[in-house]
């Protein structure tokens, strides 16, 4: 039946595994949810070994599905995965995690970030494109581990991300073989030279991170090893199947959305709602302190992008469904929620949700999640629309920054799970005053990984033509000018409310929270 390729996405809320054939048709898939832990206020951590276990279980489900459909799992030529770019764990010499996996939702490093930023350094922006430290940067997590993790201080050998951790275990690699691809490297935020794709010894010295802890930097399609006999038995795939170096989730999602050149915008509607714009390199206007934007390298050579984010954007949706609607066992409950919200007018009659469920950032660090302006007339539909619009308001602030720097953003592509919601896509079109386009393949990262697996194993010579074959427009949404005008007025009121009127209230609320 020809060659097959396996890709996985190790995300915040789930692990997804899929197998595609050489015509980029999905022939098997499976996913499992992940577990988020909240041991202290502002702390969010996960278990790196759960990522491995979930991936192995999903792979086994896929190999079983392949056999049922008459495929041979031995025809999978290569395995390629992506994972969280802003999240790391510490490993020992055997390659096993000895710390939690801390990701971008965590705020435990805030005091350290403030201390780093109190001494401005030109080298940050010049070498990384990121002029300031952030609580979501793995560079800051590494500093925290070095200061606070007794296990890492005693036995720590390397810091690795979740996808490389999974891939290392599939290939039976030790810490001495630890790796990171050049795109995920830029997820560190600080500590590297982004244009040269190397660690920066000068930055690491400033950060107090010994270069010995850093994994080697590879291309995403480099072969790092082969599926071991043990993993072959557990997963049902053939021993010796090639294992690639992997990539960053955001980078792969952008490629899966057809972003192959500069000046294109993508809304990655995942757990951390991210709004990305591709560039030719560092744009000084966007790399100024206070911009709130992050700069990264793409998966392909000489590709770069900026992104703004709402850390709990997509997670706020899951929180509302699971914790408020008590529908954690119903993954399809988003559909009736949006059906109710469609009956609510734009602007929710003034009801506002602030999505800062793990705290704010920058000057709004004390911000917390809350609903405002509710009355007895309001219901789940109103509250759900308010949650969707809340993310849109933060997007408006991000897109204003891009447009001020000369990026027009006349068309925006949406990808990942949130892009399936037509109501939300229309809200974004209205709020951002831009055409919104959705492609048929909403989860572009996994099939993109399979295309890279084909490149690594010789199935294709160039990923861009192959990726173009996977991209088919599914729907488009044009902005309603009247709604765009309304949202602009409400946005200005919301900015004043959060940045001025509620600043002292947030401080008081934060002090009340500490007594829990």
What does this structure look like?
- Keywords: Kinase, Transferase.
- This is Xylulokinase.
- Pfam families: FGGY_C, FGGY_N.
- GO terms for molecular function: kinase activity.
- Belongs to the FGGY kinase family.
- This protein has about 525 residues and is α/β, with parallel strands linked by helices.
- The chain folds into two domains: about 5-250, ATPase, nucleotide binding domain (Nucleotidyltransferase, domain 5, 2-Layer Sandwich), CATH 3.30.420.40; about 315-395 and about 480-515, ATPase, nucleotide binding domain (Nucleotidyltransferase, domain 5, 2-Layer Sandwich), CATH 3.30.420.40.
- It has 18 helices and 24 strands.
- Strands 1, 2, 3, 5, 13, 14 and 15 form a seven-stranded mixed beta sheet that branches.
- Strand 1 (about 5-10) and strand 2 (about 15-20) form a beta hairpin.
- Helix 1 (about 50-70) crosses helix 6 (about 160-170), helix 13 (about 380-405) packs across helix 14 (about 420-430) and helix 15 (about 445-455) packs antiparallel against helix 16.
- The longest helix is centred in the C-terminal third of the chain and has 25 residues, at about 380-405.
- The chain is globular, with a radius of gyration of 22 Å.
- The mean pLDDT is about 90.
